[in-house]
Amino acid sequence: MSESMYDDLAGVVDLFGALTREELEDALDELAFKQGRETDTNALSDAISDAIEAYYLVAYDPDAVGEREDSPSDADSDEPSELITVGPMAFPTLPPRAEDLPHILDYPEREVPRDELATQVEARLRAAAAAAVNSDDTDEIARLLDVTYDLEAWANTDVAEIRERLDAALAEEGQA
Questions:
Q1: What is the pLDDT of residues 26-80, one digit of tens each?
Q2: Are strands 83-86 and 57-60 parallel, antiparallel or unpaired?
Q3: Residues 83-89: what's their mean pLDDT?
Q4: Please, what's the b/e burial string for 127-154 (b: 16 or more CB within 10 A of its CB; e: otherwise)?
Q5: In sequence order, which ranges of 54-113 are alpha helices (DSSP H)?
Q6: pTM for this one?
C-alpha cells in the first residue's frame, strides 16, 4: 500500500480525532460510496492493519494506562476499549469528499491523551526494535530507525536509546 493511501486513512481519522476500528471501516465504506466505488471489507481491514503496522495510524488502549482497577461503573461504560488515531509517520490528507464524513456519520470527536498515547507507541516501538535486532532484520531495523525520528517530533519524546540500539545493529550488520 502506498504512503499516500496511509496518509488518506490518517486524514479520515483526523477528522474525528480518534475512531474505533469499526467506525473507521464504516467511514471508509461511506467514503467509497460517496466516491462511487465498491468496497471490500477485508481489504479495508487489511489497509487499517497495514497503516497501524507502518505507524501511520496507532492504536490507543485506554485500559493499558497505569494500574487501573475495574469498578462497576467501568464495566458498564460505553467507552471503546481501543481507539485508532493518527500516528507519527502520517501526514494526514483528506481524500476527495471526505470532508462530509463528520456530517454524515454521528461519531463523537475524541481526544486521546497525547502523553499516554506516546508512552504506548514508544513501548510498541521498543518491542518491535528488539524483535528486529534479535532477528537481524536489517530492512525492519532501518524502517524502525526512521520511525524513531518521526516519533520524537510527533510526541516530543526521547527515544535515543532505541535509535542507538538500531544504529548499532545496522553498523554491526554492515561489518559482517
A1: 999 999 999 999 988 898 999 999 999 999 999 999 887 654 444 444 444 567 7
A2: antiparallel
A3: 97
A4: ebbeebbeeeeeebbebbbebbeebbeb
A5: 72-75, 101-104
A6: 0.88
Calpha distance 160→24 (Å, rounded) = 33
Q: DSSP letter at 61?
A: -
Sign of the C-alpha dihedral computed for residues 39, 41, 47 and 52 taken in this order: positive
- In angstroms, the CA 128 to CA 84 distance is 19
C-alpha cell at 71: 469498578
Count each helix (H run) and each strand (E run) in the chain, helices first. Answer: 8, 2
Pairwise CA distance, residues 44 & 5, whole Å: 11
Q: Count the Cβ atoms, other than its own, within 10 Å of residue 4.
A: 11
